[in-house]
Amino acid sequence: MAADRRIVIENCAIATVDGHDTEYACGHLVLAGNRIESLGAGSAPEGLENVVRRIDASGHLVTPGLINTHHHFYQWITRGLATDHNLFNWLVTLYPTWARIDEPMVRAAAQGSLAMMARGGVTTAMDHHYVFPQGSGDLSGAIIGAARDMGVRFTLARGSMDRSEKDGGLPPDFAVETLDGALAATEETVRQHHDASFDAMTQVAVAPCSPFSVSTELLRDGAQLARRLGVRLHTHGSETVEEEKFCHELFGMGPTDYFESTGWLGEDVWMAHCVHMNDSDIAAFARSRTGVAHCPSSNARLAAGIARVPDMLAAGVPVGLGVDGTASNESGELHTELRNALLINRLGAHREAALNARQALRLGTYGGAQVLGRAAETGSLEPGKLADLVLWKLDTLAHASIADPVTALVFGAAAPVTASFVDGRQIVEDGRLLTADEDAIARATRDEAQRLARIAAQA
Ligand SMILES: [Zn+2]
Fold first, then answer.
1. 259 and 353 housed in the same domain
2. Cα 404 from Cα 420, distance rounded (Å)
3. The Amidohydrolase-related domain covers which part of the protein (predicted)?
4. CATH number for the domain including 49?
């Protein structure tokens, strides 16, 4: 779309999630090309030129697009397995199946994962992919291609594992890469796909999997690689008590100290989970501006515990929301995680003061942009930022009688998405994807899940 072609959205409630939590009970937005040109109370200004579309958004709340900060797309085809396990038992049960994935399976799983999130209001997705079986094809290319085709802004966290059972790690020997192989492939992926520009649709991060599946050298060298290439760092941290015990036994220190010793605290780093953090761990994250991807449903599914999100926010830690892989969160939706984050944190130490609806919305939008390093570009509705936004329909049975639109979105049932825009382009209309065929994706993911199950059973 040429930069001067405008779309006007009017008569809607707007939650900007800007620095002042500015909201309009009835307002307008003007999109110009892939940017938000202006927004405010009341109707759009008269006399705008080149308006190609005018949307009457009565009955809607417009928010920034949701931003997912932790996921494993390939798990879309291993949902519903090991449903009553803790993290380590779940991993050990699933590794042998995961080690059989190939390019068609990963492509279908990525399409399924992206479609589920996109039609629920996600405009920026990420995939932490760390299983690269030998001879499995161009998995990174397949994932990035799926995101590009769907029109979703995307960060690929190129993962890796090199600490298998023979080195005291958790994954089986056949599921890992070598140290040098993982580093070289990660560098190649960054060079091939990372786009550093303001409106980049694809970025790449360096993402060794977790302390119990990668060597100390891979963490240390991975951090150096990311800083040499100018990209971000991502991993899992402090997810379970078992991980904490593992770190104390192998390294003589807890996870946060171990990460610090390997160069893994910093404003260019974000970590998934961070459930088992003491006061000094949280202070270290705040001091270093290390980000957190909070994954409430996955943490509940695997009985990992409740992350101390209110304490992190009070300390100034950047926090976003994550679906996590769908083998530990079968729903694969992010808009329902706003509600789950709010409710689960209220079961923690801060009770009803833990999180409110605005804070939950901020986690899923601006907080996500912060941890992905894209807060200047997306995550809030402000003039000059990218046109990544969602129109939530709140005037039907599920929401019409709820007092306030942001409360309706967060506390209420999963709200229908009337329209979702990424980079100024509409990708969802009335809850259906405009950029992909959901039914075809459903069939392909079922077929690939069955093919993987057959191959795993023969192994
Ligand atoms: Zn994860």
1. yes
2. 21
3. 61-425
4. 2.30.40.10
The DSSP 8-state label assigned to residue 195 in this structure reads -
- Domain span including residue 88: 66-371
Q: Give the total number of structural domains in the chain.
A: 2
272 plus 233 within the same structural domain: yes
Angle among Cα 27, 47, 389 to the nearest 5 degrees reads: 35
Q: Is 104 exposed, middle or buried (0-12, 13-18, 19+ CB in 10 A)?
A: middle
The rounded average pLDDT for each run of 10 residues, N- to C-terminus, in the chain (459 residues) is: 80 98 98 98 96 98 98 98 94 94 98 98 98 94 98 98 93 92 98 98 98 96 98 97 94 97 98 98 98 98 97 98 97 97 97 97 98 98 98 98 98 98 98 98 98 94
Identify whether residues 302 and 238 lie together within a single domain.
yes
Say how many Å lie between the CA of residue 325 and the centre of ligand 1.
6
In the DSSP assignment, the letter for residue 406 is H
Name the DSSP letter for residue 166: G
Instruction: Using the mean position of ligand 1's atoms as its centre, give its distance from the Cα of residue 240 in Å.
Output: 12
Verify that 137 and 206 share a domain, yes or no: yes
Quote the pLDDT of residue 4.
Answer: 74
For 234, 289, 436, the CA distances from 252, given in Å and listed in that order, are 23, 25, 49
What spacing in Å lies between the alpha carbon of 215 and ligand 1's midpoint?
Answer: 18
Find the 241 Cα to ligand 1 centroid distance in Å: 16
**Span from the CA of 387 to the centroid of ligand 1 (angstroms):** 29
Spatial CA neighbour of 70 closest among 331, 274, 293, 370: 293
Q: Return the structure tokens found at 91.
A: 């991993």
**What is the CATH classification number for the domain harbouring 152?**
3.20.20.140
Is the domain of 144 the same as that of 220?
yes
Residue 449 placed within a domain: no
Paired sense of beta strands 51-56 and 417-422, if any: unpaired
Rounded distance between C-alpha atoms, residue 29 and residue 178, angstroms: 51
pLDDT of residue 174: 86
